C-alpha cells in the first residue's frame, strides 16, 4: 500500500506541475482579456499610449482621418502619444495596442461598442491637434511608437512633436506577428491540450498501477510458493534429468533464511542481465560483533517479478547442489520482504575477483617453470630477496603466478565440475570469467545456476570479456544441446584461457556461424606456449567432435591431479588439505543463518577429495 500511495503522490505532483505550466502559458492571454472598455456608439474615445488611466471618451465632434475623418493620432499637452476615435461605430470595436520601436507592448485595450450610456470622462481639450496635416510615414522614418488595431498599424510617432499615418501597413519596425484567428483559438486549444495531457497521464498512471499491482501479486505468489515448497519437500527430483530442466520442482529451504537487518550492503561489484552483485558484511547473531565478508546477489530492477524469479531459481539450484570447496557456496537467503512485494537476496561467499581478471593482473609476474633456467632464476631470486628483505621483491613474489599454480587451478576446476556433474548440474557457461578466486588461491565455480535463454540473441551478445558462444561446444551452438560433455568442451577452452594468462579465445570470429564453420572444418585453438604437453593432451581430448569420445570430468580431474603430482607434489598435498579445511568452514555457515538448522550429511567430504 505504501508503494501505491507513493506512486499516486508522484502522479499528482506531475499533474500539478503541468497545470502550473499551462497557467503560465495562458497568462499573457489573460492579461490581454482583462483590460476592456465599453464605449457608447456615436461617442468619442481618446486613448493614451502607456497611460491607461488617462483614456477618455466623450462627444468631441468629428476629427480628420482618411477614413471618414473619425480616427487620428496626435501628441497631447503632456507629450503623450494619443489616439482619438470620433463618432464611434460598431466597426471600431477590437483590440487596440500601442508598441514601442522594439515591438514591446506598452498599452493594450479591448474596445467594445454598445448602445448603453457611458459616463464621459475629461479629455485632453487643450491639445492642439493638426489633424488635417498628418502625413503618411515614409521609408527611413524613425518610429518611436505605433498604434495598432487588431495587429494592423495605422499611425506612428516619429518624434516628440510629430506623428505620421500608416495606411493599413503592418509596421516593419515591430517583430510581432499580426493577430489573427489563431490568436483567438490559442487559449481553447491550449486548454484542450492540457485536458488531453491530464487524461493521458491518468490513463498512463492507471496502466502503471495495474502493471505494478500485477507485479506485486506475482511476487507474493512466488513467496507463497517458496514457503509451500519449503514445508512440503515431497517433490520427486529425477536423477536422470539435468537440474536446470526441473528447476520448478527443486525445493526451497527456509533454513537458509537470514534477517535483513543483519546485512550491510557496501557497493555494487558487478551487474548482469537480471541481477546485481554487491559487496557487503553479515553481522553475527546475538551480541557478537563478529562480521563475515560476503557477496550479496540481488535483482537488477527492484521488485520486478522476472528478475526475482530468475534469482529464486538460481538460489534453488544452489541449495540443491549443496556444499563443495570448489563450488561457490550459498550462505543464506533473505525472503522476508517478498511477502510485501519486496526484493529477494542471496548471500554467497566473498571472493577476490574472477579468474580472467586475476590472470590479467598478474601476467607480468608469471614464472614459467617449464624452463629449467626459469626454475634456477626463480630459486636464486627468492633466496636473494629473502636475504635482502626487499619489499618490492616480496611484493612481486606475492603477486606472481607460476605453471604449478595454473596446474592447481586446472585440477580444482575439474574437481568442482566433477561434483556438479554428479549432481546433474550442467553449467552451460563455464569460462574463466565464471571462476572466482579466493584470497587463499582456492577457486569457486560460480554462475552455474543462472537462468539463461539459449537462443541466437544470447549467443551473439557481447559481455564484459568475450562473447559466450566462443567457449561453447559445437553442438551447443548449432543444436542448443547442453550436457556434461558440452561443459567438458568449455573446460578445454578454459584450460587455454589459463595458460594464455587470460587471453580471449577466437578473437577473429565475430559470429557463431563463422565459429561453427571453423569447428566443422576441424579447426581448434592452438597450444599456448606456457602449457605443459600433458595438459595440452587433456585440452585436445575435450574438443573431440563426438561428445561421447570426450573425457568425463572425473577423468579430467584424475589427469590434472596426475600432472600436478608430477610437477609439484607438495602443492597438490597443500591443495588437498586446504580443500578439506574449506569444506569444514563452509559447513559452519549454517551457524550464521536464522532459519531452523538442518543437519547435513558427510557425503560431500568424500566428493571434495
From TrEMBL:
ATP binds at residues 297, 349-354, 433. Gene3D superfamilies: Immunoglobulins, Phosphorylase Kinase, domain 1, Transferase(Phosphotransferase) domain 1. The chain crosses the membrane at residues 185-209. One of its GO terms (cellular component) is plasma membrane. It is an enzyme of class 2 (transferase). Its EC number is 2.7.10.1. GO terms for biological process: axon development; cell surface receptor protein tyrosine kinase signaling pathway; nematode male tail tip morphogenesis; positive regulation of axon regeneration. Mg(2+) binds at residues 434, 447. Residues 371-395 are annotated as: Disordered. Residues 263-564 form the Protein kinase domain. SUPFAM superfamilies: Immunoglobulin, Protein kinase-like (PK-like). One of its GO terms (molecular function) is transmembrane receptor protein tyrosine kinase activity. Keywords: ATP-binding, Cell membrane, Glycoprotein, Kinase, Magnesium, Membrane, Metal-binding, Nucleotide-binding, Receptor, Transferase, Transmembrane, Transmembrane helix, Tyrosine-protein kinase. It is a single-pass membrane protein. It catalyses: L-tyrosyl-[protein] + ATP = O-phospho-L-tyrosyl-[protein] + ADP + H(+). The active site is at 429 (proton acceptor). InterPro entries: Ig-like_dom, Ig-like_dom_sf, Ig-like_fold, Kinase-like_dom_sf, Prot_kinase_dom, RTK, Ser-Thr/Tyr_kinase_cat_dom, Tyr_kinase_AS. Residues 28-114 form the Ig-like domain. Its main location: membrane. Pfam families: PK_Tyr_Ser-Thr. This is receptor protein-tyrosine kinase. It comes from Toxocara canis (Canine roundworm).
Amino acid at each position: 500500500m505504501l508503494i501505491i500511495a507513493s506512486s499516486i503522490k508522484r502522479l499528482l505532483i506531475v499533474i500539478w506541475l503541468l497545470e502550473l505550466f499551462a497557467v503560465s502559458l495562458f497568462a499573457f492571454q489573460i492579461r490581454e482579456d482583462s483590460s476592456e472598455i465599453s464605449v457608447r456608439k456615436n461617442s468619442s474615445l481618446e486613448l493614451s499610449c502607456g497611460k491607461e488611466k488617462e483614456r477618455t471618451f466623450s462627444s468631441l465632434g468629428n476629427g480628420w482621418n482618411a477614413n471618414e475623418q473619425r480616427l487620428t493620432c496626435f501628441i497631447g499637452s503632456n507629450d503623450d502619444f494619443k489616439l482619438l476615435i470620433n463618432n464611434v461605430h460598431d466597426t471600431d470595436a477590437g483590440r487596440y495596442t500601442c508598441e514601442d520601436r522594439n515591438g514591446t507592448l506598452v498599452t493594450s485595450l479591448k474596445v467594445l461598442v454598445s448602445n448603453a450610456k457611458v459616463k464621459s470622462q475629461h479629455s485632453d481639450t487643450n491639445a492642439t491637434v493638426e489633424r488635417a496635416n498628418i502625413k503618411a510615414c515614409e521609408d527611413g522614418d524613425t518610429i518611436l511608437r505605433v498604434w495598432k488595431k487588431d495587429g494592423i498599424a495605422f499611425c506612428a510617432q516619429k518624434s516628440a512633436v510629430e506623428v505620421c499615418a500608416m495606411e493599413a501597413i503592418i509596421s516593419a519596425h515591430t517583430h510581432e506577428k499580426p493577430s489573427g484567428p489563431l490568436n483567438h483559438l490559442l487559449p481553447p486549444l491550449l486548454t484542450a491540450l492540457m485536458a488531453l495531457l491530464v487524461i493521458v497521464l491518468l490513463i498512463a498512471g492507471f496502466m502503471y498501477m495495474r502493471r505494478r499491482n500485477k507485479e506485486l501479486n506475482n511476487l507474493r505468489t512466488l513467496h507463497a510458493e517458496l514457503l509451500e515448497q519449503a514445508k512440503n519437500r515431497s517433490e520427486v527430483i529425477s536423477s536422470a534429468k539435468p537440474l536446470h530442466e526441473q528447476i520448478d520442482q527443486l525445493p526451497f529451504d527456509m533454513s537458509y533464511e537470514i534477517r535483513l537487518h543483519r546485512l550491510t550492503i557496501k557497493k555494487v561489484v558487478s551487474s548482469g542481465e537480471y541481477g546485481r552483485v554487491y559487496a557487503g558484511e553479515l553481522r553475527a547473531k546475538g551480541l557478537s560483533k563478529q562480521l563475515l565478508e560476503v557477496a550479496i546477489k540481488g535483482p537488477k530492477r527492484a521488485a520486478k517479478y522476472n528478475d526475482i524469479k530468475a534469482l529464486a531459481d538460481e538460489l534453488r539450484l544452489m541449495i540443491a547442489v549443496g556444499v563443495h570447496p570448489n563450488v561457490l557456496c550459498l550462505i543464506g537467503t533473505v525472503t522476508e520482504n517478498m511477502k510485501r512485494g519486496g526484493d529477494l537476496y542471496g548471500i554467497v561467499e566473498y571472493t577476490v575477483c574472477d579468474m580472467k581478471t586475476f590472470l590479467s593482473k598478474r601476467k607480468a609476474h608469471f614464472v614459467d617453470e617449464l624452463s629449467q633456467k626459469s626454475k634456477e632464476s626463480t630459486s636464486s631470486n627468492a633466496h636473494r630477496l629473502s636475504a635482502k628483505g626487499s619489499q618490492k621483491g616480496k611484493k612481486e613474489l606475492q603477486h606472481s603466478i607460476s605453471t604449478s599454480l595454473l596446474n592447481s587451478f586446472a585440477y580444482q576446476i575439474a574437481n568442482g565440475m566433477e561434483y556438479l556433474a554428479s549432481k546433474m548440474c550442467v553449467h552451460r557457461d563455464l569460462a574463466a570469467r565464471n571462476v572466482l578466486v579466493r584470497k587463499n588461491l582456492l577457486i569457486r565455480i560460480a554462475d552455474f545456476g543462472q537462468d539463461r535463454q539459449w537462443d541466437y540473441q544470447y549467443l551473439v551478445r557481447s559481455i564484459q570479456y568475450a562473447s559466450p558462444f566462443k567457449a561453447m561446444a559445437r553442438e551447443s551452438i548449432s543444436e542448443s544441446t547442453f550436457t556434461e560433455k558440452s561443459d567438458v568442451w568449455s573446460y578445454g577452452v578454459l584450460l587455454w584461457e589459463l595458460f594464455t594468462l587470460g587471453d580471449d579465445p577466437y578473437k577473429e570470429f565475430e559470429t557463431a556461424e563463422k565459429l561453427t564453420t571453423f569447428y566443422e572444418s576441424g579447426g581448434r585453438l592452438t597450444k599456448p606456449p606456457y602449457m605443459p604437453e600433458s595438459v595440452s593432451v587433456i585440452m585436445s581430448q575435450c574438443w573431440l567432435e563426438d561428445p561421447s569420445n570426450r573425457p568425463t570430468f572425473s577423468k579430467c580431474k584424475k589427469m590434472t591431479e596426475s600432472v600436478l603430482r608430477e610437477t609439484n607434489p607438495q602443492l597438490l598435498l597443500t591443495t588437498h588439505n586446504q580443500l578439506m579445511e574449506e569444506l569444514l568452514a563452509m559447513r559452519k555457515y549454517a551457524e550464521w543463518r536464522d532459519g531452523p538448522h538442518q543437519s547435513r550429511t558427510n557425503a560431500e567430504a568424500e566428493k571434495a577429495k
